Amino acid sequence: PHSLAILQKLAKEKELKRKLARIAKNEFIEVKLARIEVLISRSGYTGEDIGYELYLHPGDAPLIWNLLLKEGKEFGIKPAGLGARDSTRIEAGLPLYEHELAGKYCITPTEAGYGAFVKLHKPYFIGKKRLLERQAQRKMEVIRFKMKSKGIRMVKSEDPIVDEKGQCMGRVTSSALVEGIQVGLAYVDKNFAEIVRPLTIAHSW
């Protein structure tokens, strides 16, 4: 939540501080931070309200990295890896390519919950015919799930999801631990997904 304030501490000019504050979602701007040319965007995929991505020459990265940690110290900034980013993505229910989009199950945008972004009314686009065929035969979709208790073994991708009769309804595609509770995404039979119901995840070894 303090990412803007930290970036602004690296910007000495008032106009640059204002420019940083005006970056819209999915917008890019070119600026100089600590005399280093940086491309900054708000195109993150974490579900957070605000956040920035910095693109710069690899040789300049250590300097900017250390400056961010220094200026962000008063805000409690800490380095975080891919797992931290992925946990926020999963908590927000956002699909990841090869997990909840395409991948081994060839998950379509519609199955992932993003069918509205596919312009099927267009006369032609690459893959349209195959996508329409999949639409007509659609049996699966991506759902979000939340485990009901803490302290249980972590679920992982490919763990089977079964109904009350023990029949496999699908597979876990992503999971994360959020405040001690496991949440995740799964690719399941769409009839099973239409009703809010308890599900069981059978750990695969």
From TrEMBL:
| Gene3D superfamilies documented for this protein | Probable tRNA modification gtpase trme, domain 1
Q: Where is the GCVT N-terminal domain?
A: 1-122
Question: Pfam families, per this entry?
Answer: GCV_T (PF01571)
Q: Which PANTHER family match?
A: AMINOMETHYLTRANSFERASE (PTHR43757), AMINOMETHYLTRANSFERASE, MITOCHONDRIAL (PTHR43757:SF2)
Q: What is this protein called?
A: GCVT N-terminal domain-containing protein
